């Protein structure tokens, strides 16, 4: 099911590019059955905070992540990243649900990096975490805080960071995405 280098995101949740390197294996473990509705997660998300940006995203300029139609038959969501002042630059990839019968929040990108929707209310915020084991001795962690608009209240950010740490990740050094001068944009294709 490998299609594209998921450049972490966790934009992306995305492939873990310049993520934080941590000692030990990835802490992501399926703990319990959770309710997650991938269809409610679809649509436009702004990556307001991230601890690193992958190939598709630089952390600068205007960019957004758009989750497209959920494909029930292959348990996958195509994603588009739009960047630039006119959002004309586009990067596309697919993430796949794995163990969807056990935990529908766990995904893998095309390079088998795990991506996990740790928390979302679907309407305003989400936190995605990603982890890639390097050599069995270290791993790289990716954290992205997403919002349905270009901002996120500090109290929501702080609550989501606390949840990431409680889950077992190191406290992320988050960079705020600069949306100064960016216009709202909704992809049509």
UniProtKB/TrEMBL annotation:
<keyword id="KW-0732">Signal</keyword>
<feature type="signal peptide">
    <location>
        <begin position="1"/>
        <end position="19"/>
    </location>
</feature>
<dbReference type="InterPro" id="IPR012674">
    <property type="entry name" value="Calycin"/>
</dbReference>
<dbReference type="GO" id="GO:0006629">
    <property type="term" value="P:lipid metabolic process"/>
</dbReference>
<dbReference type="GO" id="GO:0005737">
    <property type="term" value="C:cytoplasm"/>
</dbReference>
<protein>
    <submittedName>
        <fullName>Uncharacterized protein</fullName>
    </submittedName>
</protein>
<dbReference type="GO" id="GO:0000302">
    <property type="term" value="P:response to reactive oxygen species"/>
</dbReference>
